[in-house]
Write a structure and sequence with these properties.
about 290 residues; alpha/beta; Rossmann fold; 8-stranded mixed beta sheet; 10 helices; AB_hydrolase_fold; hydrolase activity; Alpha/beta hydrolase; GDXG_lipolytic_enzyme; BD-FAE-like_dom
Length: about 290
Amino acid sequence: MPPFVLDDPTPRDPRRRWDSLDSAARDACYDNNAAVPDSAARVAARNAASATYRAAHPAGLDISYAAGDRTAFDLYPAADPKAPCLVFVHGGYWQRNARADFACFAEGLNAAGWAVAMPGYTLAPEASLAAIVAEIGAALDWLRADGAAHGIVGPLVLSGWSAGAQLAALHLGHPAVTAVLAISGVYDLAPIRETYLNDKLGLTDDEIETLSPLRLPVTAKPMTLAYGSRELPALVHDARNLHALRAAAHAPGSLLPVPGADHFSILDEFRRPDGILVRAAQDLLGGAR
């Protein structure tokens, strides 16, 4: 009798034959907009919902944490200043989007009694990836020093989506961070340099080696790695590979596939207090105590 083999529905990682792919095929490995046919309509709906939510919660908006047009927070405090806070870093391949576009994803956690803090950051090519990473560190420093003055005292769970997941994963070791919830991220930058995304990023050898979570020593704080079951294979395998690396080092944290979710719909699990991502944040904090 042959050994039991798990039937994995995820397509094989196309990057295993990277050298045989032409530039269009390499670009397609990371083109989330093209992979989700109605992505433009979803982004428009997200931005509209975020504008509504942001307008309804104006008290903590546009609070600077460093000099720069984008280096500011939108804060959505909880009624209890000691409540946990999710710090959410937006995505957009480090070169598009803004914190205001994601305000609606504070809704579920706010309803569950959590605070939410959304930092912005300078986009490429105005800033290098190394500079963007440093800005997220400065944002966390600011929260640690000044969050109490704005009603945020409780433990911080750092989260991010897409490029924001890479930025969150890199800051698991920050002293202000209790745990990380990384969603639909890119954790090895080397292939990115050989796609259209690098036109604005201009990744260096040093950035690839020092800013790729899959190339760095494991930090032994809790990290949950979430992805949608309908994500591009490159993103699914990056999440699995990073979880495997951490598991081999006995670092705490879960691998969380979200059934039926694609790169955009996965964030809807932040819209309800019983959403999968809301529960994942709550579970991380419980596991860190």
